[in-house]
């Protein structure tokens, strides 16, 4: 049982690290969160990646944020 939990944590860390790299987010931060939280970090990751993408799009269009 313990080996299964460690295996899932390692796979989650690898997945979130790779996904963070492709999304342009901090790889070590998301790999660590993936290791600690496992698959529970997925909604948090998707929210952060969407917000980062929205932030980039707004700055490219010339919209000023106050």
**Largest sheet: number of strands, sense, barrel closure:** none
Q: Which series of helices and strands comes N to C?
A: HHH
What is the end-to-end distance? Answer: 51 Å
Tally the helices.
3
Could you estimate the helical fraction of the residues in percent?
Answer: over 70%
Strand composition percent? under 5%
Which structural class fits the helix and strand makeup?
mainly alpha
Total number of β-strand segments?
0
Low-confidence stretches: none
Oligomeric state of the chains present here: single chain
What global shape is seen? elongated
Q: Specify Rg, calculated over alpha carbons.
A: 15 Å
Average pLDDT, rounded to a whole number, is 89
Relevant terms:
single chain; 66 residues; mainly alpha; elongated; transmembrane helix; membrane
What does this structure look like?
The chain has 66 residues and is mainly α. It contains three helices and no strands. Helix 1 (2-23) packs antiparallel against helix 2. The longest helix is centred in the N-terminal third of the chain and has 22 residues, at 2-23. The relative contact order is 0.13.
Short description:
This protein has 66 residues and is an all-alpha fold. 79% of the residues lie in helices and 0% in strands.
Helices and strands in order:
Layout: H1 2-23, H2 27-37, H3 42-60
């Amino acid at each position: 049982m313990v080996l299964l939990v460690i295996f899932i944590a390692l796979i989650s860390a690898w997945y979130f690290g790779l996904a963070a790299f492709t999304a342009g987010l901090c790889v070590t931060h998301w790999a660590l969160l993936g290791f600690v939280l496992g698959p529970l970090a997925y909604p948090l990751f998707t929210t952060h990646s969407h917000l980062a993408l929205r932030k980039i799009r707004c700055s490219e269009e010339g919209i000023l944020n106050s």
